[in-house]
Input
Amino acid sequence: MDLLRICCSIAHNIMRRLLFLLFLVQAVPGRTQVADSAQRKLPVRGAINCRDIGGYATSDGHHVKWNKIYRSAEISKLTEADLEEFQKRNISTVVDFRGVDESKRAPDRMNPGTDYILCPAGSDSSLNDWRKSIMSLKSGGDSMMIAYYAKTEFLAARYQPFFRKLINLPDDQSLLYHCTAGKDRTGIGTALLLYSLGVPYETILNDYLASNYYRTEENEKMVQSMVSGMHMNEEVAWSLASVKKEYLQATFDAIRKKYGSVDNFLRDEIGLDQSKIETLRSKYVQ
Output
C-alpha cells in the first residue's frame, strides 16, 4: 500500500508538471517580452510581476520610452533596498487599482512624498462576487474570467484618474501602477495605455500574456493552494491564476460592442481627445 501511495503521488506530481508545461506552451508570451526581461523586470524582492512597459514599438515606427512607466503586483512588502530602487528610478507617483478593503489589508509601502491615488471603482463588489463564485466552482474557469473581463461599467471610473496622472506627470519623474496580482486590472490598464500610445494589438497582447512568465512561481503556489485548500479542479485553478488571450480580447470586444471602437471609448469615457493623445505620446513615446 505504501508503494502504491508513493507511485500515485509521483504520478500526480508528474501530471501537475505536465499540465503546467502545456499551459505555458499555450500562454507564454512572444519572444520579445521574455528576451528583454533582464532589462524589463525591476530588481526588487518585495513585489512580483514588477516591470517596465517601455521599449515597445509603435505602429508608426517609434518606441515607448524606458524608465517612465512601470506595472506591478501589490507593493506592500517592498524592502528598504526596493524603496531605494524606486527612488533611483524616480517613481514619484503610485496608482493603486485595488479595492478599499484590499488596500487596507496590505497598504502600499512607498517612499516619503510619493503621490498616491486609489482607484477602487468596481473592485470591492467584484471581489465579493469572485469569492462567492469560486467557493463552489468545479468547472468553467475560463468562462468566469471572460465574464469578468467583459464588464465595462467600471472601466471609465477606474482608469480616468490613471490617465490624468500620466498626462500631468512631471517629465523628470516616473509612475507605477498596480493591483493585487498585477495581471487583471493592471493588465487591462496596460492594454488601454499601450493602445493609446499607438502600440499594435499583438504587442499589447504579448505584454499582457507575459504575466504568466513573470508570475510563474506565484501561479504554481496559487494553484496548489486552490487545489488543496478549496478542492478545486486543477485546470480551473490554472484558469483563475493565469492570463489568456481570450480574457483580454473579451475586454476589447465588449468595448467595441458598447462604444463602437476603442478610440471612441478612450475619447468619450476616459477623456482622451486628440490633444491629450498627442500629449501622452509626446511624453512617453520617442
Summary: The chain has one domain: 2-284. Residues 67 and 272 are 23 Å apart (CA to CA). The two ends are 66 Å apart (CA to CA). Confidence is low (pLDDT under 50) at residues 18-27.
